[in-house]
Specification:
The structure is a single chain. The two termini are 43 Å apart. The chain has helices at 2-33, 42-54, 58-77, 79-99, 109-129, 137-147, 152-171, 173-195, 210-221, 250-260, 286-294, and strands at 200-207, 226-232, 236-246, 265-270. Strands 2-3-1-4 form a 4-stranded antiparallel β-sheet, covered by helices on one side. A hairpin with a 3-residue loop joins β2 and β3 (236-246). The protein folds into 2 domains: 2-195, no CATH class; 200-294, Alpha-Beta Plaits. By secondary structure, the protein is α+β, with helices and mostly antiparallel strands.
Length: 298
């Protein structure tokens, strides 16, 4: 019963955040970008071009052009993705129609580019983080990447470059360049919002003082580690520690390693996803952790 309540609570929170993200994305487009003829990428960008040339409402174009791509996304991502995407796209389309009557926040094109791109990134980032989508371009990119040896990001970038090239021919090269700048700003903000400030990092530490260092990491950061026995080609037998942590804790980890063993070797990498509760655990006492780490790896 408690699990069912928790599941419903999480679902409610996710749809609230999808709502906020859809409204923010639409507001940024209609009050910052579109009045200054700055385009978004993907299907939204194509819809803006068509709307500018034909006066067809943008909200209708976004919804209609995304319908076949929604189906592609459903075939690849499943029912949950379909529900959240349909909800986000319908709300996004309605919000575009609503905010189209609002006046432009600024006519300074650089301000519109920076703040419009950042706000759009926050909105889209929230939608992606909570399992939705308001542009089906990535669904097509996913299918193409499976058939050819190119990544989804490369397909999306190539697609958007074509859109900006067309925009440059129609609206002028300066608008195309501002649109491209907006795209990069939006992309970085999406990455930050969808990953979060607690973006996960992984650390590999090669040291001669593995047990002591692992105990200190647990003491100061609350992070458990996995101990591996290694053998360097020149340096000989070493201990390898593996742990996951947030980027806010990387500085403290480096400090611990320098204090415990100045000759230690540290490798920090990005982690795209963590499944399970390995990130942080204070359930075990330090003596238990130390005892476990002190055992020889067979």
């Amino acid at each position: 019963m408690e699990k069912l309540k928790l599941k419903k609570y999480k679902a409610l929170i996710s749809f609230i955040m999808l709502t906020i993200g859809s409204v923010l994305a639409a507001y940024s487009l209609e009050t910052f970008l579109i009045p200054n003829t700055i385009l978004d990428g993907g299907i939204t960008g194509i819809s803006i071009i068509i709307s500018k040339l034909t006066s067809i409402p943008l909200g209708i174009l976004v919804l209609v052009l995304n319908i076949p791509l929604i189906y592609i996304g459903y075939k690849n991502m499943g029912k949950s993705f379909l529900i959240r995407t349909v909800y986000s796209m319908i709300l996004f389309s309605l919000s575009l129609s609503y905010f189209s009557y609002f006046e432009s926040v600024t006519e300074q094109i650089l301000l519109a580019t920076v703040y419009g791109g950042a706000l759009l990134g926050v909105g889209v980032g929230l939608i992606i983080h909570f399992g939705g989508c308001i542009d089906g371009t990535e669904s097509v990119a996913l299918v193409i990447s499976k058939k050819f040896s190119i990544s989804v990001g490369q397909v999306v970038l190539a697609f958007n470059l074509i859109i900006y090239l067309v925009a440059g021919l129609i609206f002028g090269i300066d608008r195309a360049l501002y649109s491209l700048l907006t795209y990069f700003i939006t992309f970085k903000v999406i990455d930050f919002v969808s990953e979060g400030i607690d973006q996960t990092k992984s650390a590999l530490i090669i040291t001669e003082k593995g047990t002591d260092m692992a105990d200190e990491i647990f003491k100061r950061l609350g992070r458990t580690v996995t101990k591996i026995r290694g053998n360097g080609l020149i340096s000989g037998e070493k201990e390898v520690l593996y742990c996951v942590l947030t980027r806010m804790e990387v500085f403290e980890l480096k400090k611990i390693c320098n204090e415990m063993d100045e000759s230690s070797f540290i490798s920090i990498s990005d982690v795209s996803e963590i499944i399970g509760n390995h990130i942080k655990s204070n359930k075990r006492p330090r003596k238990f952790i130390r005892k476990r780490l002190s055992k020889k790896v067979k």
